[in-house]
Amino acid sequence: MASSAQDAYEVLVEDFLSPALRDRDFKGSSGIYELPSASHWKRLSLQKSLYNDRDEIAFAANLLVVRRDLWDEMRARESMQHSVPRPGTLYNDPVEFMRLAPADDSDHWWQVSPRTDAASLAKDFMDLLDRFGIPWLDAKSA
Fold it and tell me: What single Pfam family name could you report for this chain, choosing any that match (predicted)?
């Protein structure tokens, strides 16, 4: 058992979520991932709550899609410093954003504590990603 929520979160991400995401062709690690595409940025990030403590960490999953050429135009027009869009950051059109969540909960946060069953949480997360997240990324980049 992990000694803190942070330890449990790191085990969840590094031992369960990152390998499962790589199995689905995502690249990245440590909570920032990209589904490769020549024409679009298709990104996923894990966002930890500002109100976490030693006993519990809450995190959400943010998805983002934008055409690469439109992103470059937007960056130049708005003098943005970062070359890659960041999921979880609110941008103007044409950037599409979605929080990964069950259909009945548009602002879902997963809870992780030292007692969390990481395999079970990862399975639930990946089931949602497979049912809603990846189809959304693919539809928005078609």
Answer: DUF4304
